[in-house]
Every structure is written in C-alpha cells, then in structure tokens.
Amino acid sequence: MASAAAKLTSLLRASTIQDHDEVLEAANAAIQASKKDIEAQRTRVVALLKLDRFEDALRAVAEGGDELEKECVFEKSYALYKSGQLEDAAKTLDRASTSSKTSRPFRHLAAQIAYRAEKFPDAADAYHHLLEEQGGLAGEENDLNINLLATNAQLEWNGLGHLLREQERQPSRDHLEAFETAYNAACTCIARGDLNRASVFLKRAQDLCEASEDLSADEKKAELLPIMVQHAYVLTRLGKESDAAALHKSIVLSEIPEAPTRAVAQNNQIAIGAAGRNPFLTQRLFQSATKLSGSDKLFAYQTSILNRNQYAIDLQAQKFDGIEQSTSKAILQSSSPTSSVEIAGLGVINAAAHTRLQTGAEALKQVLHLLEKRPTDIGLLLTIIQIYVQLQKPGPALSLLEAFLKRLETASTPDFEDVRFAPGLVAVTVALYRLQGRQNSIRTELARASTHWRSKSKDSASSLLREAGIELLKSSSREDVALAGESFETLVAQSEKDSIAVAGLVASFAIEDYAKIERYLPSLTPIEHLTAGANAAALIAAGVASIPAPAAPTSKKRPAEYEAEKPASAKRRRKKRLPKNYEEGKLPDPERWLPLRDRSTYRPKGKKGRKRAQESTQGGVVKEEETLELVGGAGAVKVEKASGKKKKKGKK
To answer: Which regions span the lipid bilayer (predicted)?
Structure first.
C-alpha cells in the first residue's frame, strides 16, 4: 500500500502530458491497495480525462461514492460536457460551492458549456468577464480571445449580432496575427454576409497555419481541413464554383477528425455537383453523409440548413406527399403565427410540395386554398405574395398582406405584436407600398414599427429603426420628424460611433432642440470638407437640372418605310347636277318636296283607290256628323248622320 502510494506521488511530481497511461496504471494499483484512497481515485479520474476516456471517468466517479463526487465536481462536469450531456453538466457545476464557482477554471468550463448548449449571450458575458479580470495564466488571454470570436460568430449566425460590442462588430488587424483568430473572424464575416473579407481572412489563416512552427504535421493537417472546408463554402457563395470544386478535391473527408465538420464538408461537396446529377443518387449520398452518432451534434442553424437541403432533394425526387405531411405536422405543432426563419422556410417547402413544383397562376390557385386552412402561416403568405409580384399583380398581394396584419393587430397579444412588426414583414409591406407609389402609407407603417420597437428593452431592430428614421426625415410633418429623432436617439444610445444615426439625430433636432445635438456636432464631417471640391459659380451658371422626359415606348413591329410628304392637291369643286326636264327660266313645281300621294296631281288607280280619295279631306266629300246623348247622363258621342234615302229590301 505504502509503495503504491509512494510510486503514485513520485509520478505526480514528475508527470508530463505524455505519461497519463503510466499515471492511470499507478492510480489503479493504489486503489487496489486501498479502495478508500480519495487522492488515488481522483488521480485516476483526471488521468482518464487526459486520455479522453470520458465515459470511463464518469464511471470512476460513480464508483468512488459521494465523497469522491464532492471532490470531483469539476472533473465530473467536464466529463459530462465532453460526453454531450450538457444539461447534466450545468446542473453538476451549479452544485459546486460558492468559492469554487467563482474560480477561473469553473468559469471557463461554465462558458464552454453555455457555448455548446447554444446559450451564446451567456457564453459571451462569461468570456468578457474573464478577459476584464487580472490573474490569468500565461497564454490564457489568447485562448479567451479565440473563444470569444467563435462565440461572436455564433451570435451572428443566430441573428443576435446586435448584442456584439461596438469594437467587436468588425474584424481588426489584431485578428490576423494567429490562424485561430483569423479563422474565427472569417466565420463572423460569413455570418454577416461579408464574403470577400471572409475569403481574405481564410487565406491568411491557411498561410499562418502552414507556417506555424508550434504544430506537428498531423496537427497542421487537422487544423487546415476545417479552414479549407470553410474557404470552399465561401468560394461557392461567391460564384467561383470551379475554384471551390478544385479545393474540395484536395480535401480528404475521411481525414477530418470532427464528425460535424466532416458532415458539413460532405454536404457542401454534394451541393456543388448536384445540378446535373440524378436526384435519387444525390438523395442517397446526402443521407449517408449527414448521419451523426454518439455525442456528435450540429448546431441548430446547421441542422436547419441541412434539413432544408434534405427537403430540396426530396422535392427533386418527387416525394411530394411525404414532404407535405411532415412539413404540415411541424408547422401545426409550432406556435402560430411565428417569425421563426425555420418555420417560415417549412411553409415555403410545403407550398412547393402541395403544388407539385408548379409556378405562376396554376400554383396560385392551389396555395390560396391552402392559406384558408393555415391563415397564420407566414411562409405560405410570403410565397403567395411573391407569386403575385411575379405575375405583376401587387394590388392583390398588398390586400392579402394588409388583411393578415389586421388579424394580428386584433389579437392584441405581445407575441403577435412582435410578429406584426417583424422587420421582414415590415420590409415586404414597405416594398409593396413603394410599387404603388403610396409614400404616406410607407411613412405610417415605418412610424408604427419604430414606435413598437423603441418600447422594447432589446435592440434587435436597429436596422429597421435606421431605415424608419431616414424615411421619416423626408416628411414635412413635424410629428414624423420628431419620430425620426426618437429613432435616431435610440440608435445613438446603443452606439455613438454609428455615423448615420448621429447625422440623423442632428438633422432631426437641429431646429427644435439645438442643445441636444451640440455635443455630437464635432463628430460630423465639417461642411467645408464636404463642399471643398464643389464650384458654386459653375453650379449657378448651369441652372436647375431638369428631369429628362421618359422615352417613348418602343414597338416590336417593323417600322413602315419613310415616304416624303406630297403637297396637298387643290380640292376639286363638284359640278351641280340638274333634273333632266329642267328648263331655264321656268319655276319649279312647289310640291316637288311632298310625297307623291300628297300632291294635288295624284290620282289613285282602281275603284277602291278612287273611293279612298273621295273620303279624304283633300277634295273629297265631307261627312256630316251628329251628336247623340247617352242614356242616364253618361255622356255624348259623335256619329255619322244618316242619309235620307232608304235601302231597298231584298226579295224574299
């Protein structure tokens, strides 16, 4: 017993990073000699952690009982963290004593657990506090900066870039000093969409890693592979697919040590050549490439992207019914309505599966019926709006969007209000208003959105506040200008280095409240510098610029050949026509304009015709009439007077 303990003590005094197996063997011997030796048991746990045998370390802690567990809180929490049991790791760390929690090792581990559990704001706060304090180990500051940059990249990927400090929002020259910082700064640029700068930083990271003298050949290869995978992705996003494909050929996927990185690399490699490939073969390659086992796990945004890729491949393979069922189930299970990018993306995929990848008017008919079943599906709504715009019908699109927004307003719940004024929906509304030239509606919408987000404690809509302020400044209304000033005031409170916000604040309050803007005037560019290259005399001489008249619409028809105009010929006077029996000097018949039957010379032919002529008033016999009174005083009627002759009776 004494010899085993002495051997263990001597090993611990002379231990280096290469002899953990020997330390473990000595610790096991000491424990066999005395099972209650806490120091030997703890040594065994540490040796197992050094050998990356995390499951064995957890079993060793469990075998040691409560006393060993109290002594090995940090070790157990670290083993749980490395095993992927993040929730249990955080709970174990919380059970530590107050003095232990405030120590730097415990806070380091807490920050790492928060990072892997995707609680990136907590991880960033922990790293900031560690950097601000004194008393760190040699080289610890560099590690903290590397971890903080990685956390900042994750904040950007998850749409929380507004939480970054002002000095951290853009990469600096200091990040080019080490390949780790250059790589993490490049990841931040990728998440922000600054791909050209990301490419520069990744090339720098690769050069620094290859030139490093502190790494062995195998270590260099392990560090270079993730850099190359990320660079190939950036080249693809920049449209340089041939360069990306060539870079992927130099990457041996089986040599990538981390399974999540290997899965991402395989996905990117499949995506580059998927355009002309059989979709069923692509589907098979994708399913085999993205399988992870054990504690290997992708981040949430990576999982979301891979899921969308899976749905896209399934659509090409015409698995419409299965996609429609799975996406509908996920949409209905989520809180609705929601501004989640993932759920909105599922709405678009569901619409594509429902219409069997049709487009245009045919697809519009089908998705409109689908919207009646899911009236709060924002992804489906935006899909319909896009189809309307493609069909050049912004009016129905705007009516549909306004009805949806009105339904959200009548709900009057805080969550619905956040969705109602989500920056993306506000941007779509403003774009549709702009298509119809409704400038007042644009300002009203932006003013309402600005008022809503300024009442929130979080500053997640800074881009919306900036655009709202710029638009409201164009108004001649004092109320709109005051709202613009409040928006810029909120932005300046977040960062006084935001030159656009400072300029907007000065423009808003220059007339109304000079004292509020006086302290910001020195930070603005002097007017003399802005007008240094302007020639006032030349501008005055040039006069007021006029807007050119719009060009006449061009026709696709072939223009007619040009013919010279002919001089107008003199109009020929038409010769008067005279009747055949015209005699000069003889008066024309005055009844020539009357119809033939009304002339005095008209003589009808036949017996009946002559009788009708006699009965007419013109030259005929006038019949005598008499008036007879009706019986009972009912009135009187006129009848023809009977003649004196009596009609002879006929023979019987």
So the answer is: none
Q: Specify the higher pLDDT residue, 506 or 579.
A: 506
Structure tokens at 219: 């270590």
In angstroms, the Cα distances linking 204 to 186, 210, 224, 250 are 10, 10, 12, 18
Q: How large is the angle between the packed helices 241-249 and 259-272, nearest 10 degrees?
A: 130
Q: Which amino acid is at 213?
A: E
The tokens describing 124, both together, are 């960033």
Which phi and psi (to 5°) does residue 627 adopt? Answer: -105, 130
- Residue 413 identity (one-letter amino acid): T
Task: Give the mean pLDDT of 141-161.
Answer: 88
Strand pairing partners for 639?
626
CA distance 529 to 612: 111
Task: Tell me the pLDDT tens digit for each residue of 445-499.
Answer: 999 888 888 877 555 678 888 888 888 888 888 888 888 888 888 888 877 777 8
Instruction: Return d(Cα 389, Cα 364) in angstroms, integer.
Output: 11
Cβ contacts of 341 within 8 Å, gap of 6 or more: 159, 304
| Structure confidence by residue, pLDDT tens digits, 246-285 | 888 888 888 888 888 888 888 888 888 666 678 888 888 7
**Is residue 505 within 8 Å of 469, Cβ to Cβ?**
no
Ordered DSSP codes for 60-80: HHHHHHHHHHHHTHHHHHHHH
**Burial tier of 88 (Cβ tally within 10 Å: 0-12, 13-18, 19+):** middle
Which neighbouring-strand residues pair with 627?
Answer: 638
442 closest CA partner among 454, 453, 430: 430
Tally the C-alpha atoms within 13 A of residue 293's C-alpha that lie toward its C-beta.
2
| 624 CB-near residues (< 8 Å, 6+ apart) | 640, 641
Which pair of structure tokens corresponds to residue 255?
A: 């040599």
- Tell me the β-bridge partners of 578: none
Neighbours of 420 (CB within 10 A): 22
Q: What is the 3-state secondary structure (H, E, C) of 606-637?
A: CHHHHHHHHHCCCCCCCCCEEEEECHHHCCEE
Instruction: Scan for tokens 């004024």, then name that residue.
Output: 421
State the pTM of this model. Answer: 0.70
CB 383 within 8 A of CB 351: yes
Residues, the chain:
652
For 533-547, letters b (16+ CB in 10 Å) and e give eeeeeeeeeeeeeee
Alpha-carbon distance of 73 to 90, in angstroms, equals 11
Q: Which helix (H) or strand (E) element contains residue 638?
A: strand 636-640
Q: Is 520 exposed, middle or buried (0-12, 13-18, 19+ CB in 10 A)?
A: middle
**Cα distances (angstroms) measured from residue 569 to each of 77, 180, 565:** 108, 92, 12
How far lies 354's CA from each of 359, 363, 367, 372, 468, in Å?
A: 11, 9, 8, 14, 37
Grouping H, G, I as helix, E, B as strand and the rest as coil, residue 271 is helix
Nearest Cα neighbor of 232 from 248, 250, 252, 220 is 248
The Cα 246–Cα 348 span in angstroms is 33
Tokens linked to 272? 């580059």
Return the structure tokens found at 532.
């240094």
Tokens representing residue 85 in the block: 């049991």
pLDDT above 60 (res 164): yes
